[in-house]
Amino acid sequence: MNVRNNFLSVAILAAVLGLPAQAQGLRLPPDAAAAAAANEPATADFIVAVVNSEPITNTEIQREVQRILQQLAVQQRPLPDRQRLSSEVLERLINQKIQLQLAREIGIRVEESAIDQSEQAIAAQNQLDLATLRRRVEADGLSASQFRAQLRDQIMLQRLRERELTPRVRVSELDIDAYLQEQQSAQNVSQMNINLAHILIAVPENATADQVQSLQAQARKAQERARAGEDFALLVRELSEPSAQSKGGQLGLRSADRYPALFVEATRDLPQGAVSDVVRSPAGFHVLKVVEKASAGLPAMAVTQSHARHILLLPSAQQSEAQARARLLELKGQLQSGRADFAALAREYSQDGSAAQGGDLGWANPGMFVPEFEDVMNRLAPGEVSEPLLSRFGMHLIQLLDRRQVSLSQAEQREAVRALLREKKFDETLRTWMQEQRGRAYVELRETPL
């Protein structure tokens, strides 16, 4: 068993839930979305299009349209024109049928175990058990069998595209050289991507001069401790305003123009890992740390690695999820009281290949673990033990041992650029390939969807 991330992409799983491209994500809508479906008037069914003798009906289209509208309503996004959306859904269904027909013709198959794993992944991403997931899916207008059929189709489409397109996508050393030269010659501050972490010492609106002076002194003390090498995430938890404590105070990798100008100015000349002077904003005093800095067109040249260990229990007929969670809570209590050692407990109880190493997962780059595991790990301070966590692999207890900033070697940087270019070329190749498949298929448009 391995928590490394080797599963379906978010976009593929989002497509299963019927999300439009601009609203893709794994989060399911709340049960309230079912109420909107109940108020939707029934529509007549008829054949809208035929794809190589296989029909697409008005009901199929309107079911997808309604699901998209529900998702947008839940997210409080503007609703598109329904007729235009129906046309877009029809085009997507035509392309999907063409590709599924091709997949079946060349013998691509999907095992039930792959569908089971996909279903478990979606449940884990939404922090649900399978029974609750299925109730949500039914509330969203799909039976369990229809949901699994859509999962099967999406896995088949992914396998088809990987088989057909991967041989077409090639990135040469000359491609990498040209891209690096282009990005480096165009580099300036406005084109930089930066990730800043900050400690916020909030200043109340009616603060007196003495209060402001005291709070500024707190910020300067935090700055001194950060520059002295104390763990920044720990300082955030100890000193920062609670609303600014998530993700160790990190604001996320984004272009410089999406940061406040005073943050950019304060960190403009700082190298990665450096801590700024105290900055005053309307919210209060900030201490900023440069976590990452890179050209907007280049992948990160350094990463924050995490060193963690875990205990994994596998829910089964003999051990339910609730029992696994209770056992891990008991083990966490032993750790907190000092009655046990994490590595010893991992060797005794963990049902994972890392058990022999005391649950040690080694140093890991971002993205190496599945998202539900990594999200929890990223919120831990060194030495801290998580609450029991359900992932697609089972129930975990995680301890973060340490974090470190690591610069990528030149070879690793080039491989990162190669992956970036491969992804870009894959998207371009996919569009061309889809046009080719559409041109070869027989498509008869019969009626306008209602």
Short characterization:
The chain has 450 residues and is an alpha+beta fold. The chain folds into 3 domains: 10-168 and 432-445, Porin chaperone SurA, peptide-binding domain (Triger factor/SurA peptide-binding fold, Orthogonal Bundle); 188-295, Chitinase A, domain 3; 303-407, Chitinase A, domain 3, CATH 3.10.50.40. The protein has helices at residues 10-16, 33-38, 58-74, 82-105, 112-125, 130-139, 144-165, 173-185, 209-227, 232-239, 261-267, 321-336, 342-349, 371-378, 410-440, and strands spanning 47-51, 54-57, 192-202, 254-255, 279-281, 284-295, 302-313, 360-364, 389-391, 394-407, 443-445.
Keywords:
Triger factor/SurA peptide-binding fold; 47% helix; Chitinase A, domain 3; 450 residues; four-stranded antiparallel sheet; 11 strands; 3 domains
Describe what this molecule looks like in 3D.
With 450 residues, this protein is an alpha+beta fold. The chain is built from 15 helices and eleven strands. The protein has a four-stranded antiparallel beta sheet with strand order 4-3-6-5, sandwiched between helices. It has a four-stranded antiparallel beta sheet with strand order 8-7-10-9. Helix 4 (82-105) packs across helix 7 (144-165), helix 5 (112-125) packs across helix 7 (144-165) and helix 8 packs across helix 15 (410-440). The chain is globular, with a radius of gyration of 26 Å. The two termini are 48 Å apart. The model is unreliable at 4-42 (pLDDT under 50).
